[in-house]
């Protein structure tokens, strides 16, 4: 189930994340374990997440591996290391919707948000326009922790496309 899309404005958001290159089919097996790794890294830094974990899709070529980050928002910009990078998702306007249900419906949620923007006549940059950067962020924010809510039909994930300043 999808909520009604909307446009929201967000402030700069510091984050800590691990960047990986992988094939689309490997996301379910390779990306989720990184959530715990980033959370552990934050704890080792004496920091804590200030929101739900996210996946950010930074490069999505038609063929070949994609580049994504798995991370958490943080209260301040931290110093990263060779494994965990830190940065800031720039302030700006975002198109968002909430997908309620299993994660296998997230592709369709992303497509639906893109189609909604098209019907509104609102352009949105794709990651290929600024590869590896957050100026064209496509985010999935995992609001529901499956450890707390075992029923996948109740999982909520926010899909957000950054539209610019």
TrEMBL record:
Start and end residues of each AraC effector-binding domain: 3-164
Signal peptide start-end: none
Domain of life: Bacteria
Database matches in InterPro entries: AraC_E-bd, GyrI-like, Reg_factor_effector_dom_sf
Record-given protein name: AraC effector-binding domain-containing protein
Pfam families in the record: GyrI-like
Gene3D superfamilies referenced in this protein's UniProt entry, alphabetically: Regulatory factor, effector binding domain
């Amino acid at each position: 189930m999808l909520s009604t899309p909307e446009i929201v404005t967000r402030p700069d958001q510091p984050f800590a994340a691990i960047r990986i290159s992988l094939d689309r089919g490997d996301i379910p097996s390779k990306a989720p374990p990184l959530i715990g790794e980033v959370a552990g890294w934050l704890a080792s830094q004496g920091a804590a997440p200030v929101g739900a974990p996210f996946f950010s899709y930074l490069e999505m070529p038609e063929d070949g591996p994609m580049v994504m980050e798995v991370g958490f928002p943080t209260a301040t910009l931290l110093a990263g290391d060779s494994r965990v990078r830190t940065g800031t998702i720039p302030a700006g306007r975002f198109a968002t919707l909430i997908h309620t249900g299993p994660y296998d419906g997230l592709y369709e949620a992303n497509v639906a948000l893109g189609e909604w923007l098209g019907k509104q006549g609102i352009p949105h940059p794709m990651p290929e326009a600024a590869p590896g950067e957050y100026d064209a962020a496509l985010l999935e924010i995992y609001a529901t922790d499956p450890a707390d809510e075992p029923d996948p039909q109740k999982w909520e994930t926010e899909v957000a496309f950054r539209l610019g300043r």
